[in-house]
């Protein structure tokens, strides 16, 4: 597919443009400046392809006998000054893809899907990860972790519009260091691998980040990979979960997080996020609870009365109201016995 699209073929665009969904539009969408519909019949010389920095705003699948690609188009300038679009295959751009073609491809996909501003953040995240992997200290490791979570969430949402996502799990995984990727019905789902982040924090001597990631490993004890639910919840079916409040798991994590309140690094902010997730599991009005009321009330009393964790007045009041709801039977408890309180 050494075919260079000079501008866009206007006829292809004008045909039912408004009726075509986002994932059906081709590079001839109106976002691209039209300079005519001329096509080069022969492959252009590779050294003539000079990208302008503009990319198509979606990805396109391409299958060859030896490879499967899922790339954007790049706008290029030829030596005679003409502009056009060419598919971002690494072998079309050896001057850019020779060092690490997977990184070059990943950056193109990120820019096409999320825009140039997010590309800068993506490069910063990868740089921190690469430095940590080689033992170079960097105070932004936790920020890189938070970026990985954000990129995962954004990519999964935007890729949902594509009818096909032809890459392998390994190819998707290479886009987001510090994750594991599995295909579900052919679609990528990335999970944070906390073992990798813990190892990176230990390698660079970031004790606060290491303490945070060690706690995350405890939250997902099976293999320290995020998956669908943490240790303070139980899955009745793949889609139905319940809180395990009453087993003192919430108390254990809240006390551990209490010791991180003094962190001045980004690890302190991430620890606060984890604390909020645990508290929401207690306070959310529509939640359901696996254990019987007596066990739930006992753990609530320990949280409220033991002095550990430390609670501010507003949080204390919220927990007290929730305890009153439990005591008054205004929560769905005892799911294990099938005796749900209304």
Protein architecture, described:
The protein has 342 residues and is an alpha+beta fold. It has three domains: 10-96, no CATH class; 115-227, no CATH class; 228-342, no CATH class. The protein has helices at residues 10-14, 94-97, 101-114, 116-133, 141-159, 169-173, 194-203, 207-219, 249-258, 266-283, 293-305, 313-327, and strands spanning 50-55, 60-63, 68-71, 73-77, 83-87, 179-184, 187-192, 233-237, 240-243. β4 (73-77) and β5 (83-87) form a beta hairpin. α7 (194-203) runs antiparallel to α8 and α11 (293-305) packs antiparallel against α12. The chain is elongated. Residues 1-43 have low confidence and may be disordered.
List keywords for this structure.
3-stranded antiparallel β-sheet; alpha+beta; elongated; 12 helices; 9 strands; two-stranded antiparallel ribbon; 342 residues; 3 domains
């Amino acid at each position: 597919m050494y075919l260079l699209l000079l501008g866009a073929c206007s006829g292809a665009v004008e045909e039912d443009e408004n009726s075509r969904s986002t994932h059906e539009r081709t590079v001839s969408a109106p976002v691209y400046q039209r300079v005519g519909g001329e096509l080069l019949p022969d492959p252009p010389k590779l050294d003539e392809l000079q990208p302008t920095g503009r990319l198509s705003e979606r990805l396109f699948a391409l299958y060859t006998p030896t490879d499967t690609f899922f790339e954007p188009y790049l706008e290029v300038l030829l030596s005679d000054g003409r502009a056009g679009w060419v598919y971002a295959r690494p072998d079309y751009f050896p001057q850019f893809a020779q060092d690490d073609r997977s990184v070059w491809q990943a950056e193109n996909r990120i820019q096409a899907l999320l825009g140039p501003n997010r590309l800068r953040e993506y490069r910063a995240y990868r740089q921190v990860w690469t430095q940590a992997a080689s033992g170079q200290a960097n105070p932004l490791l936790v920020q890189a972790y938070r970026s990985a979570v954000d990129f995962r969430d954004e990519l999964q949402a935007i890729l949902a519009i594509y009818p096909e996502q032809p890459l392998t799990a390994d190819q998707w995984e290479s886009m987001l260091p510090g994750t594991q990727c599995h295909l579900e019905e052919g679609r990528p789902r990335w999970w944070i691998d906390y073992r990798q982040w813990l190892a990176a924090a230990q390698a660079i001597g970031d004790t606060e980040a290491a303490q945070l990631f060690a706690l995350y490993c405890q939250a997902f004890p099976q293999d320290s990979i995020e998956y669908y639910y943490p240790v303070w919840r139980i899955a009745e079916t793949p889609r139905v979960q319940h809180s395990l409040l009453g087993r003192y798991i919430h108390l254990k994590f809240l006390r551990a997080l209490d010791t991180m309140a003094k962190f001045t690094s980004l690890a302190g902010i991430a620890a606060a996020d984890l604390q909020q997730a645990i508290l929401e599991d207690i306070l959310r009005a529509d939640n359901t609870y696996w254990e019987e009321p007596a066990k739930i009330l006992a753990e609530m009393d320990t949280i409220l009365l033991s002095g550990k964790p430390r609670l501010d007045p507003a949080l204390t009041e919220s927990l007290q109201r929730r305890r009153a709801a439990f005591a008054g039977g205004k929560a769905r408890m005892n799911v294990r016995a099938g005796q749900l309180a209304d």
